[in-house]
Amino acid sequence: MQRDAYRKLLEWKKQPVRKPLIIQGARQVGKTWLMKEFGHNEFRQTAYFNFESTRELHDIFRRGYDPRKILSALNILAGFVINPAETLISRFT
Predict the structure, then answer these.
(1) What residues pair up with 45 in beta bridges, in sequence order?
(2) Interatomic CA distance for residues 30 and 32, integer angstroms
(3) How many domains does the chain have?
(4) Which residues fall within 8 angstroms of residue 24, CB to CB, at 6 or more apart?
(5) For 56-79, what is each residue's pLDDT tens digit?
(6) Rounded Cα gap, residues 46 and 66, in angstroms
(7) Which domain holds residue 20?
(8) Contact of 23 with 35, CB cutoff 8 Å
(9) Which one-letter DSSP state was computed for residue 43?
(10) What's the pTM?
(11) Beta partners for 24?
């Protein structure tokens, strides 16, 4: 099961123009582990954001959906510069 999900993530990564990807599933089945493992193995860096423990994330998206402003705010929260070509942005709600 995990290998199949990982294979699908690799297929998503190979797309020349990728849309955001949402991984849904029951609690405690390995979604977070899968994303962290995928990010570690397939990207230069992973920016992992937890909406439950970081209330500032909610404010970022309430201000609008300007990608440049969102990315700038996420850079600050991540503590490093997010390069869209080399960084997997993963979130938990």
Answers:
(1) 87
(2) 6
(3) 1
(4) 31
(5) 888 998 888 898 999 999 999 999
(6) 21
(7) 2-92
(8) yes
(9) S
(10) 0.79
(11) none
